[in-house]
Amino acid sequence: MARPDELTFAPLGGVGEIGMNLSIYGLGNRHQRSWLAVDLGVSFGDEEHLPGIDLIMPDIRFLEKERKNLVGLVLTHAHEDHFGAIIDLWPKLKCPIYATQFSASLFEAKCNSERNPPKIPVTVVPSGGRIDLGPFSVEFIPVAHSIPESHALAIHTSAGTVLHTGDWKIDPTPIIGKPTDERRLRELGDAGVLALIGDSTNAVREGRSPSEAEVAKTITELVKNAKGRVAVTTFASNVARLRAVADAAKAAGREVVVVGRAMERVVQVARETGFLDGVQNFRGADLYGHFPPDKVLAICTGSQGEPRAALSRIANDDHPQVTLNKGDCVIFSSRTIPGNEKAVGAIINGLVTQGIEVITDRTDLVHVSGHPRRDELRDMISWVRPQLLIPVHGEALHLSEHAKLARAAGVPKVLICRDGDLVRLGPGEPAIIEELPSGRLYKDGSILEESKSRAVVERKKLAFAGCVFVAVAVTEKGELADDPEVDLVGIPEKNTAGEIIDEIVFDTVVSTVEGLPRARRRDPDAMAESVRRAVRATINQHWGKKPLCYVHVLTV
User: Fold this and answer.
1) Number of C-alpha atoms within 13 angstroms, CB side, residue 416?
2) Residues 6+ apart with CB under 8 A from 263
3) How does pLDDT run along the chain (556 residues), one tens digit per residue?
4) Angle, nearest 10°, between helix axes 101-112 and 86-93?
């Protein structure tokens, strides 16, 4: 008798980390499976550990190999950590993409901002709609989150139904868009849910995430009481927050000026898709200086301390159109993503030093998370009543806390996995049955590099210990034809005794070459290796670090 189809799940990014989300679902047997991909996002580079790397993407080797069995890529929403890798990686997959209108429009605007915009077709699905992709029937269930048209996905298959929550929270008053569809989620629970694959971002926080409506009240009050200019920075994609800020400005008789390309792009898409209907027209940054200080409010990019974003340039007083002075006010309507604390702190300190008042969520309710806290996670479990729960979208601590909560809430089976684990969801006992190739790709300028690539590995060393370049010209007999050339980059000029390190290295090169046996002198590779070792050892002796060293031997 033929075995029934097996339903499997594998995260290729987004588990054990926050960001870079890519999940795949498989239906079939070991030899032949159809695959459905959900989201394809990025995470952001960290200058300290990955100098020069802007974006990190999931390694999609496995999906490339299975391309002919990939029925489609479905997007839960349009945050960068869920759709930011598509432009770079889609050409390797060329699969159909499905998203609701706002996500599709924002993706199109993102493509159009590229130098050579790629042609990537996206099929628009109505919110609450259902599509059939191979053996999967995918239903888009509206959920509240910090960007319009976020959806959980109910993935219906012959082996059972999976609820992939995406990013969500429970917000009965979300300002724009629909609240999380409790009724539909309860119906799914009544019909039976095999597995819940759930957002763990706030699993360590008790209670419930406050509503966007409460943030809107606070911002209205702060803007009303402000005396000078007001600047608000938030995530560009948080259209509900943009609307709340615009309403607060209107109530205080202020014009809204939009500053920053990412913000302009989202505002344009939000207007086209109806999410800013009834909101006054915004002004361009070029008109900022035309309004009296108490009649203007600037909405700026740069809430994460990005060096070229609007707020950073304003704080450094090098923005061509927008300035702030003593007595003005900046509201950070955002949370600092882990890793960005230094950059954000530098901007806040810069603003405070100039006498500008800075308001953050430390003192006022000017930001709420778009992710569920523990009571909301319990609600979701009670509505859906899954047989199995797999925590995703979180670091190890978040996953572990979500798993504990699920067990305490009576979920029969809870399984923690990591990127690359292929999990059997059913039929039969849930288990990790295989390890798929997974990893990271780095966007280095315009090139995609593997994480073990030479450029990435060497740049870390360069950042830590600098580099030495040595050029040696020798005769055919192996005698020095001229003085060696030595160039030190990123290395101190003098040692602790005040001796010049360039001169010490020069002497080392000469004495090493002259001390080599004749046979090694006639072998350029052997000479280069001897000089390289000697130079690194010498610098280590005088500095305590071993730099990279490149030696070029030229026979004349």
Assistant:
1) 16
2) 236, 242, 299, 300, 301, 310
3) 346 789 999 999 999 998 999 999 999 988 899 999 999 999 987 666 677 788 999 999 999 999 999 999 999 999 999 999 999 999 999 999 999 999 999 999 999 998 887 899 999 999 999 999 999 999 999 999 999 999 999 999 999 999 999 999 999 999 999 999 999 999 999 999 999 999 999 999 999 999 999 999 999 999 999 999 999 999 999 999 999 999 999 999 999 999 999 999 999 999 999 999 999 999 999 999 999 999 999 999 999 998 889 999 999 888 999 999 999 999 999 999 877 899 999 999 999 999 999 999 999 999 999 999 999 999 999 999 999 999 999 999 999 999 999 999 999 999 999 999 999 999 999 999 999 999 999 988 888 888 887 887 788 888 888 999 999 999 988 889 999 999 999 999 999 999 999 999 999 999 999 999 988 888 999 999 999 999 999 999 999 999 999 999 998 8
4) 100
Tokens (6 digits) for 13: 């990014």
For CA atoms 385, 391, 392, 394, the dihedral sign is positive
Name, in order, each residue with C-beta under 8 angstroms of 519's C-beta and a sequence gap of 6 or more.
none
Helices of type H across 237-321: 239-251, 261-272, 310-315
Q: Is the Cβ–Cβ distance between 347 and 330 less than 8 Å?
A: no
Distance, CA of 2 to chain centre: 43
Token reading at 469: 């370049």
The Cα-based distances of 6 to 30, 164, 537, 540 in angstroms read: 9, 18, 58, 58
d(CA 531, CA 522): 14
